Structure formats: structure tokens, C-alpha cells
């Protein structure tokens, strides 16, 4: 069995730092080191970021290439990452919103439609992106990170080799299901591993299947994989009605429509931020789309796309909400820059009803030339519970992924707040961990919470929930709590956030990363 340093006593991030330092001391670029090792520049970037597993053989080759003995090789038990938080600290300063994880993942999947060169600017370096990149590389796609680690160049081969797909990476992300849309117009039959991702209860893939059947695709699940078969496209106009206005369902249908000659009308489509990013990219590829930002899209696709394009990924409204919440719960004045305001208006209206004091700059345009941005400054405020329950809705309603942040905000407000998380079966239960920090959170049923405040926060040790947004909510609660808290097993946060703890530290948070 191959021994990897993910199983070693030395953290991968520390190994990556040593390798980067040794490479720089030799005056080598990442590309030059990659050439010496017979690997890709993107692999070197991942190694130096600590997000790439290393075999003992690879470490030995790196040692030889850099003429160094970077560290001894030893084996042992895995060591999960934990955070020690000294709460009750006021934050200050300005923090900039990173690009959207969900948009980046959709764009990576959509790049399979293009036989030309795609460059994605400002891609977040997160685990979810790395997993999709690994899957793309495993089927023959050339994916290369820029030397600064911010941009991705993607060049697909004429023929994809789906038999060599990285099952492990694919099974650890639900995003693999968005390969169906771009592939169904190119393959008569193919297999994809079962989708994974966050543990949020049952999330059926049936809405995806309903959306893609009009395109001639039939899917059978067997032996740990989805087997898809596709009948030839007639080129006749198609009308597709989505039974669920889901983001990834809509994206799958859009990519299927983009890859066929003919006109497709999609009704009940999600107009959310990542869907709009996908449409903006496809327009660069020559796909004609009307109705962007609405629930009805008319798409004139192309069965053969060969274009060299560059696209800058838009900013992430969910990260924006996370950062705003950090300021709110710590009673701080901070500025969150580059907020995509179109996708935050309901959240801000709800916070205004709760008494939050904030200000906005004039709007300006994102690098992609389409998304409207503002800078938002939040001020210390006396919050009160809203009159009505807080619940998510498809865009332009309150973002489904932003709902959990209102749990920790409501805990600091006077009065009783009901939160109705109707989308997920079991996400609400993870938010009851706030009671460990002193909050009064009652689970009414798998979808509803009653939260009474204001909370007298206190520190505690909590195991990280197995779901991304609740995990960040608990971290933010710890920042509000006086004393020391420990959040154990926080690796899931890296699925959707790039160096979140370090960025919060820059605002004045006291957070220490450690391993047992």
C-alpha cells in the first residue's frame, strides 16, 4: 500500500511551506520544478498550498529535485485540524470578498463544452475546486494554475477518457453531477461515480434526471455509479420545465442546452448568482441566451464549440454574508468590500428590520463586466428579533446558503426568532450546537428552530458539524463568546472558504490552528 503524508505526523501545509521555500531558494518557478518532477504546475501549486496528498516516492523525488532533505518520512495516525478561538474580540478594518465557489465549480464543469482554451480568472483555492480539477485532469483535461495561484487555464482533449476518472475525488463532491449536462451531447453512453459532498440529509438527484430526460438522456444507478445513455439529438426545439428551481439542476439543463444545435426553452430556472456566471461564460463561447436573471431562459446552443476565452469569476454572496456576520456578532465596525449587492438585498432588508446599522458605497462593476458590487460597512447595533420568521427562497429571495448565519445573528438579538430551513432535511439540527456556547436554540422539527436572545455567550469545545455553513456559524459564535473555545475537526470549512481563519485574524480575531 502506498503511504501518503496525509497519514503522517507532519501537516501537509507545513510540508508545502518547506517545499516552497526550498524551491524559491533555488530560484525555480513552479513550472520549472514541475518539469523536473514530470508533473504539472498546478500539482506543484497544490503541494505548496498543502492541499495535495504526497506519496513517499514523490517526496523523495522532490528532495532530489531540490537537492534537499526537507523532512524525515514517518507514518502515524491522521491528525485533523482544530481551531482555538479566544472570543469577545472587537474586529476592525476592511476585508474583500473572494470569488464564488459555486460559480467556479459550475464554470469548471462547463469548460468541458469548449474545445478551445478557457482561462478562469480569480478562482478560489478551496478543496471543492481542487476536487473538480482532479477529476478533470484524470479524464485528460489539461488544467494549469497560474504562477500566482489565482487563475486556471483549461484545455480539454478532443476525446475525453472517462474510463480513467478519479473515483475518489468524484465521490467526495456533489458537483460531479454537473458533468451530465456538458457530456450528454458528446457521449452516447458514459458512467459517473455517485455524488457526495456535505452531509445535509437526503438530496435526491431525481430533479436533475427530470431536467435532462428531454435532451434524450436516461440514467440507471448501479454498482456505485450512474450509467447514462443518450439518444441522438434531433435538433428540434425543446421546452424543459424544471420541477425544482435548484441552482445545480438549472446549470445542468443550461449546459445540456448549450451543447446542442437548436433552441431550448427552460422554464422555472434558477436566476441565482452562479447560474448567471455560467450564462455569462457561455455567451463568450458563442451560445445565445436570453432571459438571464429571470426564470425563463431561451438558449441557442452549438454542438461544436472551439473558442479561446477568458472569464473572471464573480464575487461570492455567501462569503459576503459570512464576513458581515463576523462583524455583526462581535459588535464591530468592519467594511466588507466587493459585495455582489444584487444577491444580498433581501438579507440586508431583513437585517435592517432587525435594527442593524450599515452603510453602502455607490455601485461599481465587477471584473467580469456584469456583476454589480458595493462595499458594505456594518456598525455596532442593538438587534431585535424580526416580526416574521426568517426563511430562504430561490433568488431573488433570501439565499438558501445564507440562512444559517441568521441563527447566530438572531441569538444576539432581543426577542424570539423562528428560522425555517425548509430546503434541507437535517441542516437545522447542526445549528443547535450554538446552545453549547450559551444560546437558547430549540429544535421544533427537522426544519424549524426557535431562537431566543440576547445570548450571554460563553466558550465551549465543540466538534465541527459535518456541513459547511453550520460549521462556519459555530466558528462565528465562538468569536462572539468570551473566553476560549475549541472547534474540532474543521477540515470541512476548507471546502468552501479559502484561508478563512487567517482572513478573520487580519480583522483582529484571535484564532489559533492546531493539531493534536
UniProtKB/TrEMBL annotation:
One GO MF term: DNA binding
Alphabetized UniProt keyword annotations: Cell cycle, Cell division, Cell shape, Cell wall biogenesis/degradation, Cytoplasm, Peptidoglycan synthesis, Transferase
Example GO biological process: cell division
Catalytic activity: phosphoenolpyruvate + UDP-N-acetyl-alpha-D-glucosamine = UDP-N-acetyl-3-O-(1-carboxyvinyl)-alpha-D-glucosamine + phosphate
Record-linked PROSITE patterns: HTH_CROC1
Enzyme class at the top of the EC tree: transferase
Similarity-based family: Belongs to the EPSP synthase family. MurA subfamily.
Protein name: UDP-N-acetylglucosamine 1-carboxyvinyltransferase
Taxonomic source organism: Serinibacter arcticus
Lineage: Bacteria, Bacillati, Actinomycetota, Actinomycetes, Micrococcales
Amino acid at each position: 500500500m502506498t503511504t501518503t503524508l496525509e497519514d503522517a505526523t507532519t501537516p501537509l501545509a507545513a510540508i508545502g511551506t518547506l517545499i516552497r521555500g526550498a524551491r524559491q531558494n533555488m530560484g525555480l518557478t513552479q513550472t520549472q520544478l514541475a518539469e523536473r518532477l514530470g508533473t504539472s504546475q498546478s500539482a506543484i501549486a497544490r503541494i505548496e498550498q498543502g492541499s495535495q496528498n504526497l506519496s513517499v516516492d514523490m517526496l523523495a523525488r522532490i528532495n532530489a529535485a531540490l537537492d534537499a532533505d526537507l523532512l524525515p518520512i514517518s507514518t502515524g495516525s491522521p491528525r485533523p485540524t482544530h481551531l482555538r478561538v479566544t472570543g469577545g474580540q472587537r474586529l476592525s478594518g476592511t476585508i474583500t470578498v473572494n470569488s464564488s465557489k459555486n460559480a467556479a465549480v459550475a464554470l469548471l464543469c462547463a469548460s468541458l463544452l469548449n474545445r478551445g482554451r478557457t482561462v478562469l480568472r480569480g478562482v478560489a483555492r478551496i478543496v471543492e475546486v481542487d476536487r473538480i480539477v482532479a477529476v478533470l485532469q484524470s479524464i485528460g483535461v489539461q488544467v494549469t494554475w497560474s504562477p500566482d495561484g489565482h487563475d486556471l487555464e483549461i484545455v480539454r482533449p478532443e476525446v475525453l477518457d472517462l474510463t480513467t476518472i478519479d473515483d475518489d475525488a468524484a465521490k467526495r463532491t456533489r458537483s460531479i453531477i454537473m458533468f451530465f449536462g456538458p457530456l450528454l451531447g458528446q457521449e452516447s453512453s458514459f458512467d459517473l461515480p455517485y455524488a457526495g459532498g456535505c452531509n445535509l440529509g437526503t438530496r435526491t438527484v431525481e430533479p436533475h434526471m427530470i431536467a435532462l430526460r428531454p435532451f434524450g438522456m436516461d440514467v440507471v444507478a448501479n454498482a456505485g455509479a450512474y450509467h447514462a445513455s443518450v439518444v441522438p439529438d434531433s435538433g428540434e426545439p425543446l421546452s424543459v420545465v424544471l420541477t425544482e428551481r435548484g441552482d445545480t439542476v438549472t446549470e445542468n439543463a443550461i449546459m445540456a442546452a448549450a451543447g446542442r444545435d437548436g433552441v431550448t426553452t427552460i422554464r422555472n430556472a434558477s436566476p441565482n448568482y452562479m447560474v448567471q456566471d455560467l450564462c455569462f461564460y457561455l455567451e463568450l463561447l458563442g451560445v445565445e441566451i436570453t432571459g438571464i436573471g429571470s426564470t425563463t431562459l431561451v438558449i441557442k446552443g452549438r454542438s461544436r464549440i472551439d473558442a479561446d476565452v477568458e472569464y473572471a469569476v464573480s464575487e461570492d454572496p455567501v462569503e459576503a454574508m459570512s464576513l458581515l456576520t463576523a462583524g455583526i456578532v462581535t459588535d464591530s465596525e468592519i467594511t466588507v468590500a466587493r459585495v455582489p449587492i444584487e444577491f444580498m438585498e433581501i438579507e440586508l432588508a431583513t437585517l435592517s428590520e432587525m435594527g442593524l446599522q450599515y452603510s453602502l458605497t455607490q455601485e461599481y462593476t465587477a471584473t467580469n463586466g456584469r456583476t454589480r458590487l458595493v462595499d458594505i460597512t456594518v456598525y455596532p447595533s442593538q438587534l431585535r428579533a424580526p416580526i416574521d420568521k426568517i426563511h430562504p427562497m430561490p433568488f431573488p429571495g433570501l439565499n438558501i446558503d445564507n440562512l444559517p448565519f441568521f441563527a447566530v445573528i438572531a441569538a444576539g438579538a432581543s426577542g424570539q426568532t423562528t428560522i425555517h430551513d425548509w430546503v434541507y432535511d437535517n441542516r437545522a439540527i447542526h445549528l443547535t450546537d450554538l446552545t453549547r456556547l450559551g444560546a437558547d436554540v430549540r429544535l421544533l422539527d427537522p426544519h424549524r428552530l426557535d431562537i431566543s436572545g440576547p445570548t450571554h455567550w460563553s466558550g465551549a469545545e465543540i466538534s465541527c458539524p459535518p456541513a459547511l455553513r453550520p460549521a462556519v456559524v459555530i466558528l462565528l459564535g465562538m468569536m462572539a463568546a468570551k473566553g476560549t473555545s475549541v472547534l474540532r475537526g474543521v477540515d470541512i470549512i476548507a471546502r468552501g472558504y479559502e484561508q478563512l481563519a487567517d482572513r478573520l485574524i487580519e480583522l483582529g480575531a484571535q484564532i489559533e490552528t492546531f493539531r493534536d
